Amino acid sequence: MEDQSIVSALVLGVIEGLTEFIPVSSTAHVLLAGQFLGFKSPGNTFAVLIQLGAILAILSVYFTRLWQIAVTLPTSEKSRRFVGIVLLGFLPAAVIGVIAHDFIKTVLFETPLLICIVLILGGFVLLWIDRKPLTPRYHDVNDYPLSLALKIGFFQCLAMVPGTSRSGATIVGALLLGADKRSAAEYSFFLAMPTMVGAFTLDLYKNRDALNVDDALIIGVGFVAAFVSALFVVRSLLAFVSRRGYAPFAYWRIAVGAIGLIGLLLFG
């Protein structure tokens, strides 16, 4: 039984890493896959805790840039502005996430039917935004106004409904507010850092009594798998989006949501 759990954790970790930074909702994929694999996690903690592996993938890819910002923070207005842009974008999710945490985890995360429907609806939204003739005004994250960052942060809050996608919500919001496709995806990367660390810390604290030593191995396997697979995605996504846009992810969302609905109808 333990071997099955480890294999399931490995599969779910790979799914988490491959889907965290593309607009298809990693949470939806992990929860639905866990449902069909028969994988159980106290309070659905596993799905949040393995995200730390994906966070470290971003940090490793952008380490030089982030280190430069940290070193020059006391003296560089540009560095301080960048930090402000990221923290302002994170603020709405931090406030709403703390207030609504229990409802999100005990109600929304436990409703596979809702997740499938949101996946499909989000796919059509992504198709619409990808084909909409937008005229970008911002081509570099460093040029984002602080007000724009805050507005994108409110869009990110939509991702508290599983199936919406954190990266999808921030990317759609950024595109509608004047960002180009590449910078929207990159800002989603940076915004993921405080958001996912915050979610990880809050979930770890809330479920501290439910976790035990046996969970550590399973979470560790998922963590490593998420790190390796996310590393691949982070290194290749910006170039892919610049060439192909977001339509491929939209079709994927619709297909996964439809398959999930069929599976729920057939197997419960």
TrEMBL record:
* The family this protein is said to belong to: Belongs to the UppP family.
HAMAP family assigned to the protein according to its UniProt record, in alphabetical order: Undec_diphosphatase (MF_01006)
What Pfam families is this protein classified in? BacA
| Further remarks about this protein from its record | Bacitracin is thought to be involved in the inhibition of peptidoglycan synthesis by sequestering undecaprenyl diphosphate, thereby reducing the pool of lipid carrier available.
**Catalyzes what?**
di-trans,octa-cis-undecaprenyl diphosphate + H2O = di-trans,octa-cis-undecaprenyl phosphate + phosphate + H(+)
Q: What is its main location?
A: membrane
- The protein here is known as Undecaprenyl-diphosphatase
Q: Which organism is it from?
A: Peteryoungia ipomoeae
| GO molecular function annotations of the record | undecaprenyl-diphosphatase activity
Please tell me whether the keyword Transcription regulation is annotated for this protein.
Answer: no
Q: How does it sit in the membrane?
A: Multi-pass membrane protein
In the UniProt record, the gene name given for this protein reads uppP
Quote a single Gene Ontology cellular component term.
plasma membrane
Keyword check for Transmembrane helix: yes
